[in-house]
Amino acid sequence: MRTDEVRALYDRTMRERARPDGPGVRVERDGPLVRQVGGPDDWNGVVWSSPDLDAEGADAAIAAQIGHCAALGLPEFEWKLYAHDGPADLGDRLRAAGFVPEPPETLLVAPAELLTGPVALPDGVTLRPVTDAAGAELMARAHERAFGTDGSRLLHQMVRRLEEAPEDFAAVMAVDGDGEPVCSGRMELYPGTGFAGLWGGGTVAEWRGKGVYRALVTYRARIAAERGYRYLQVDASDMSAPILARLGFTALGTTTPYVYRPGR
């Protein structure tokens, strides 16, 4: 896999020509930027900026996004900055305007067919597809247990997606013998791009290192490959990146979420 070619393909199909990531949201071109726009419970942010963006254009674009956030009354707005985006000091300019950087993530990609081996699970653990609101509630609980964060926003997005646009989406969780969720993950399928995105993979502390996370990756890889998707893509945390690298994922670079919250 030639990383420069795959990164260029990713930039073109997944960022510049981005598609909405769920119902009720839209993708807009705003001058040198592409952004997603939705309601307060949706993800709102910049996904692509022109390679020709210079210092003057960057300051103007940043100011425009702050105004956009204020006009819609959004609680937060994210600028997803990739390491190869320009200008070179764009991160500094975002910070100066009030955006706060969150921990960087590694953009990882792997051929889907490479990961379609057998699913191996610890004794007593089973995989369960998430197909309804009850499953979404369990998945949100798994998210809270794994990451220690509020899962209400995820629950809202999951229920809406399952009700209104389930065809290009898959979610799965692992449950123990008592039916308690111990790991969960979802997958976005992006028709016409060749990419499927893996999101939200997280395992509760006492089940880490037992192959549960890997099993969820394999489960989703099978679905992607069966539907004709060539690549799996992950924005990986420092915890999951080494696991995914061992599975065969290749790093294309890093991405840092810069978040703007009005009044802070």
Describe the structure using short key phrases:
single chain, 264 residues, alpha+beta, Aminopeptidase, twelve-stranded mixed sheet, 12 strands, 34% helix, globular, acyltransferase activity, transferring groups other than amino-acyl groups
Q: What do these coordinates show?
A:
This protein has helices spanning 3-16, 55-72, 90-96, 133-147, 152-164, 212-226, 241-247; strands spanning 26-30, 33-37, 45-49, 77-82, 100-101, 105-111, 126-129, 169-175, 181-189, 195-203, 231-236, 250-260. It is an alpha+beta fold. It has two domains: 3-106 and 255-260, Aminopeptidase (3-Layer(aba) Sandwich); 110-252, Aminopeptidase (3-Layer(aba) Sandwich), CATH 3.40.630.30. α4 runs antiparallel to α5. The protein starts with a helix and ends with a strand. The mean pLDDT is 93.
Write the layout of secondary structure elements.
Layout: H1 3-16, E1 26-30, E2 33-37, E3 45-49, H2 55-72, E4 77-82, H3 90-96, E5 100-101, E6 105-111, E7 126-129, H4 133-147, H5 152-164, E8 169-175, E9 181-189, E10 195-203, H6 212-226, E11 231-236, H7 241-247, E12 250-260
Parallel strand pairs: 3-4, 10-11
Antiparallel strand pairs: 1-2, 2-3, 4-12, 5-12, 6-11, 6-12, 7-8, 8-9, 9-10
Number of domains: 2
For the record, what CATH class of the largest domain applies? Alpha Beta
Mean pLDDT: 93
- The CATH superfamily of the largest domain is identified as Gcn5-related N-acetyltransferase (GNAT)
Order of helices and strands: HEEEHEHEEEHHEEEHEHE
3D shape: globular
The fraction of residues in strands falls at: 25-35%
Q: What is the rounded Rg?
A: 18 Å
* Number of extended strands: 12
* Number of discrete helical segments: 7
Biggest sheet layout: 12 strands, mixed
CATH architecture of the largest domain: 3-Layer(aba) Sandwich
Q: In percent, how helical is the residue content? A: 25-40%
The rounded distance between the terminal residues' Cα atoms is 43 Å
Task: Please state the structural category.
Answer: alpha+beta
Pfam families: Acetyltransf_1 (PF00583)
Keywords: Transferase
InterPro entries: Acyl_CoA_acyltransferase, GNAT_dom
Protein name: GNAT family N-acetyltransferase
